[in-house]
From TrEMBL:
Name of the protein in its database record: Putative integral membrane protein
Principal location class: membrane
Keywords: Cell membrane, Membrane, Transmembrane, Transmembrane helix
UniProt-listed Pfam families: EamA (PF00892)
Compartments where located: Cell membrane
Membrane topology: Multi-pass membrane protein
InterPro entries: AA-Vitamin_Transporters, EamA_dom, EmrE-like
Organismal lineage: Bacteria, Pseudomonadati, Bacteroidota, Bacteroidia, Bacteroidales
Domain EamA intervals: 6-139, 150-285
Domain of life: Bacteria
GO cellular component annotations of the record: plasma membrane
Length: 313
C-alpha cells in the first residue's frame, strides 16, 4: 500500500472512530447513566491517555500565564458542546443528531465572515442553502413524527460552540500551542463543568456491569486517542483538505450504527437530507480556507529535524 492509500485509509478510520460516540454512549443511557456522568468518565479516562501521548513525544506540559484563561474558556466551550450533543441523544435519533452536528464547518465559515470580515462567497451561500435544505428534510424522523425542537436546538448549540472553539483555538494567542497539549488542557479544564453538574461526585451515576465500563473506556480510546492518531498520520500522508473531507464519514458512521445496532429508521427522505448536508460541508471544505481552521493536527507529532552526522552534541 502506497503512502497516499495509507493516508486515505487512516483518514477514514479517524472519521469513523470519531463517529462512534452513540455506539458507546447509548447503552450507558439505557443502563441508567445520564450525559453528565458519561462525559465525566469520558474526559477522566481520556486525559491520562493524552498525557501519555504527550510524554511519549518528549513534550512538556508548561503553559504561559496568558494562555491559562483562554484555555479555560476553550475547555468550557468544548465541554458544553459535548454536553449539548449527548443531551440531544435523549430527544432524537443519534444518527440524525450526528448529521446535524456536521454543519459546524459552515458555522466556522459564517463566523469568519461576520466576525473577522472574511469574504462570504457565492459558493459559501450555496452551501448554506444546501445544508438548510438537508436540515429541512431531516426535520421529520423516519416514522413521520417531527423532530423535537429541543433536540434540534441542543445540536445546533453544540455545533455553534464547537465552531467558536475551532475559531478561537486558531487565534494568535493559542495557535502556537501544539494541538495535543491544547486538547489535553481543554479536556482538563472542561471536565470542571461536569464536576459541578454532578455535584462534585455526589450525583455521579456509576455502572456496575463490567462491559459497560468497557463502553466508558472505549469512549476515551476510539473517538479520542485513535481518532487523533489516525488524523495526525492522515494529514501527513495526504494533507489537511482530503482529511477534513473524509470527516463526512463521522455522521455516516453514527447513522450506520444507529440503524444496525439501535434499530433507528432510515427513509429515502432522510437519506437525501444526509446527502445534502454532507455535500454542502464537503464543498465548503474543498473550496474555501475553512480547512486551515478545521485541521491543525500536523503539529500533534511534528517531525523532528534530522541531526547531521558531524554535528556536535
Amino acid at each position: 500500500m502506497n503512502a497516499k492509500a495509507k493516508g486515505y485509509v487512516l483518514g477514514a478510520i479517524a472519521a469513523a472512530t470519531y463517529g462512534m460516540n452513540p455506539l458507546f454512549a447509548l447503552p450507558l443511557y439505557k443502563a441508567g447513566m445520564n450525559p453528565d456522568s458519561v462525559l465525566f468518565f469520558r474526559y477522566l479516562f481520556a486525559i491520562p491517555v493524552l498525557g501519555i501521548m504527550i510524554k511519549a513525544r518528549g513534550r512538556n506540559f508548561k503553559l504561559k500565564p496568558n494562555e491559562i484563561v483562554p484555555l479555560i474558556l476553550m475547555g468550557l466551550l468544548v465541554s458544553f458542546s459535548s454536553l449539548a450533543l449527548f443531551q440531544s441523544y435523549n430527544y432524537m435519533e443519534a444518527g440524525i443528531a450526528s448529521t446535524l452536528l456536521f454543519v459546524y464547518p459552515i458555522l466556522v465559515a459564517l463566523i469568519m465572515a461576520f466576525v473577522f470580515k472574511e469574504k462570504l462567497t457565492l459558493q459559501t451561500i450555496f452551501c448554506i442553502l444546501l445544508a438548510l435544505g438537508g436540515i429541512g428534510l431531516l426535520y421529520k424522523s423516519g416514522d413521520g413524527t417531527t423532530l423535537s425542537l429541543t433536540g434540534v436546538l441542543l445540536v445546533m448549540a453544540s455545533a455553534l460552540s464547537y465552531a467558536i472553539y475551532i475559531v478561537g483555538a486558531n487565534r494568535p494567542l493559542l495557535k502556537n500551542i501544539a494541538t495535543l497539549k491544547l486538547t489535553f488542557y481543554v479536556l482538563l479544564f472542561g471536565m470542571t463543568l461536569f464536576l459541578v453538574r454532578i455535584d462534585f461526585g455526589r450525583s455521579l451515576h456509576i455502572v456496575h456491569d463490567w462491559y459497560l465500563w468497557g463502553n466508558l473506556i472505549a469512549l476515551a480510546i476510539f473517538p479520542t486517542a485513535i481518532s487523533f492518531l489516525c488524523t495526525t498520520l492522515a494529514v501527513q500522508y495526504i494533507g489537511s483538505t482530503p482529511t477534513a473531507i473524509l470527516g463526512a464519514l463521522e455522521p455516516l458512521t453514527a447513522v450506520f450504527f444507529g440503524v444496525t445496532v439501535f434499530g433507528e429508521s432510515l427513509t429515502l427522505r432522510l437519506c437525501c437530507g444526509i446527502i445534502l448536508i454532507i455535500l454542502a460541508v464537503t464543498l465548503i471544505i474543498a473550496g474555501s480556507n475553512v480547512t486551515s481552521h478545521l485541521v491543525r493536527f500536523r503539529k500533534l507529532f511534528p517531525r523532528l529535524p534530522l541531526k547531521k552526522k558531524n554535528a556536535k552534541s
